[in-house]
Amino acid sequence: MGTRLGAAGMGAELGERATLVQFSSAFCQPCRATRRTLAEVADMVEGVTHVEIDAEAHLDLVRTLRIERTPTVLVLDGDGALVRRAAGQPRKADVIAALGAAVRD
């Protein structure tokens, strides 16, 4: 997709193998469930990090990435390249499948 994010742009370190980036907002109910799902998956897969970004506090990044709703989840590979993107509350199986495209052994 050509998009790459680094630690400086996100305000958090990238995972060694992949990073699950979640854009959230304060009053978003699906964001809470998404946070739990992504944290569980990150705990299951070694080298994967979950980073949550407050969309309202990072409007420049939201505009740059064209985030239109929360939650939006970006799956980055170990180099910070965007591999998958989804808006709405993801299912755990879908997150695991998306990680398969990002994680290199």
Keywords:
4 helices; Thioredoxin; globular; alpha+beta; 25% strand
Structural class, from secondary structure content?
Answer: alpha+beta
Question: How many extended strands?
Answer: 4
Q: Strand order of the main beta sheet, please?
A: 2-1-3-4
Could you state the order of secondary-structure elements as H and E?
Answer: HEHEHEEH
Domain Thioredoxin: 17-97
Protein name: Thioredoxin
Pfam family, one: Thioredoxin
InterPro entries: Thioredoxin-like_sf, Thioredoxin_domain
Structure notes:
By secondary structure, the chain is α+β, with helices and mostly antiparallel strands. The protein has 4 helices and 4 strands. It has helices at 7-10, 29-44, 59-65, 92-102; strands at residues 18-24, 48-54, 72-77, 82-87. It has a 4-stranded mixed sheet, covered by helices on one side. Helix 2 links the parallel strand 1 and strand 2. The two termini are 21 Å apart.
Brief account:
The protein has 105 residues and is of the alpha+beta class. It is 36% helix and 25% strand.
Ordered list of secondary-structure elements with their pairings:
Blueprint: H1 7-10, E1 18-24, H2 29-44, E2 48-54, H3 59-65, E3 72-77, E4 82-87, H4 92-102
Parallel strand pairs: 1-2
Antiparallel strand pairs: 1-3, 3-4
